[in-house]
Design a protein that fits this description.
Largest sheet: 7 strands, mixed
Strand order of the largest sheet: 12-11-10-14-19-16-17
Number of helices: 6
Structural class: mainly beta
Shape: globular
Bound molecules: CU-O-CU linkage, copper (II) ion
């Protein structure tokens, strides 16, 4: 199938998918996702199309939009040449629906299918992607956004979703096939050379058309396998209303909106300038790759309204169990390894093995609490009591950034380098800077075996991964 830009935009439009399928009935909203190989134009017409792997053959995959409290039923059909699964990133699903191969389900073989079904407990911006060979499968384009609407969403004129990603393309726009590069594994991961928004290269001609006086809710999702973004909105003052799908007190993003892989932010953007105004959205997380992502272009016609809306924008919070930090049990989780790391060896399958040998023979480069692990299924790093309150002290003893993601739960980020965080924000993925120490707190209220891993997917494959058992 050829995917035109129009059909892609249509797939991304805020179509009331759930309304059409399920309304408010108890019937689950059902959708089929065929994971398959397809061609898509990522870069300007001077280049060929790229062979991608996409849900329904498009990148990003279909935007699933439902209401809080509904049930979602997804039939995954695997038409890929490899086994796959779907993980529902950020959603508190029953363990059997979590999409982790060999831990919560067998991988879905080529030609196979698997049915996911779960209630949507929390409103917010989430996403879905494979958990099998994800450093390759996500890089090839397997990801999509899942929006769960609040029962009472804030008043905006329009919603826009930007799926931020990148690709490592050869001059003929095909993938560079070095998905398992040892360099990426031991350094910052597979950072691409072509950034896309909603599956299209936008740096040169991407435009967000707006009207003077308009208010937009912009949902940002970083689906890149390694790239971190820091967005700036020239002469505009976005307010952050949610992080990782969870409400935060609306606040300005003074130093830009930082999104590590896997992370999301919901912004409210007002457009106060005169018709005809132009402004840039830029990314400067890596100074040497800084540049424009999008241009905001105000229509020339009359303003939508003379005075900006002043309706409240705060979201109501999801019903998350609040951890009691004073009585929480504390555990340290020490991350080591990678290039320029300080450890020399690690425990691997009961044996002390040097990191050099681990990299050469097992493609592992990262160490969690002294051990290196391969694949998903291994003995739990921690066994947590169901209903127990926990603080995890995540210690990054490496020279690299790591977005650490916990499955099945949402946690509060309570401290960084010993200093309490001002917002104590909820998150499912927390970005740790090199040598940083971050404390997170949560109630272990979802039974099962849950992954805790770095969302730089080459790091995850390289051993930056653990299982937490809740029982
Ligand atoms: Cu978004 Cu374990 O992953
Ligand atoms: Cu990492």
């Amino acid at each position: 199938m050829k995917v035109s830009r129009r059909s892609l935009l249509k797939a991304l439009a805020a179509a009331p998918f759930a309304g059409a399928c399920a309304g408010r009935s108890a019937q689950p909203a059902q959708v089929t996702l065929v994971a398959r190989v397809a061609k898509q134009r990522l870069v300007p017409a001077a280049y060929p199309e790229t062979e991608v792997w996409g849900y329904e053959g498009i990148v990003p995959g279909p935007l699933l939009r439902l209401r809080q409290g509904e049930n979602l039923r997804v039939v995954l059909e695997n038409h890929l040449p490899s086994a796959t699964t779907v993980h529902w990133h950020g959603l508190r699903v029953p363990n059997a629906m979590d999409g982790v191969p060999h831990v919560t389900q067998p991988p879905v073989a080529p030609g196979g299918r698997f049915v996911y079904e779960f209630p949507l407990r929390d409103a917010g911006t989430y996403w879905y992607h494979p958990h099998e060979q994800s450093q390759e499968q996500v890089a090839r384009g397997l990801y999509g956004v899942l929006i769960v609407e609040e029962r009472e969403p804030p008043r905006v004129d329009r919603e826009v979703t930007w799926v931020l990603s990148d690709w490592r393309l050869a001059p003929d726009a095909s993938h560079r096939e070095d998905f398992d590069s040892l360099f990426d594994l031991t350094h910052a991961g597979r950072i691409g050379n072509t950034v896309t928004i909603n599956g299209r290269f936008t740096a040169k001609d991407g435009v967000l058309n707006v009207r003077s006086g308009e208010r937009i809710r912009l949902r940002l999702v970083n689906t890149a396998v390694a790239r971190i973004f820091r967005l700036h909105f020239e002469r505009h003052a976005p307010r952050v209303i949610a992080l990782d799908g969870q409400a935060v007190p609306p606040h300005a993003a003074e130093k830009g909106v930082v999104l590590g892989p896997g992370m999301r932010a919901d912004l409210v953007l007002d457009f106060p300038h005169a018709p005809g105004t132009r402004a840039e959205v830029t990314d400067d997380f890596y100074p040497r790759m800084a540049g424009r992502l999008m241009e905001i272009v105000y229509a020339n016609g009359p303003p939508l309204r003379e005075r900006l809306l002043d309706a409240p924008v705060a979201l109501s919070a999801n019903a998350l169990a609040d951890p009691d930090v004073a009585r929480a049990e504390r555990h340290e989780i020490l991350f080591q390894g990678g290039a320029m790391g300080s450890v020399r060896d690690a425990l691997f399958q009961g044996e002390r093995v040097t990191l050099a040998r681990l990299a050469r023979e097992h493609h592992l480069a990262w160490v969690v609490n002294g051990a290196a692990v391969k694949g998903h299924a291994h003995a739990p790093l921690l066994s947590l009591k169901r209903g127990g309150h926990y603080v995890l002290d995540l210690i990054n003893e490496t020279a690299w950034h790591h977005p650490i993601h916990l499955h099945g739960h949402v946690f509060r980020i309570i401290a960084r380098d010993g200093a309490p965080t001002p917002l104590r924000e909820w998150a499912d993925t927390v970005l740790m800077a090199p040598r940083e120490r971050v404390e997170i707190a949560f109630v272990a209220d979802n039974p099962g075996h849950w992954m805790l891993h770095c969302h730089v997917l080459a790091h995850q494959a390289g051993g930056m991964s653990a299982v937490l058992r809740v029982a």
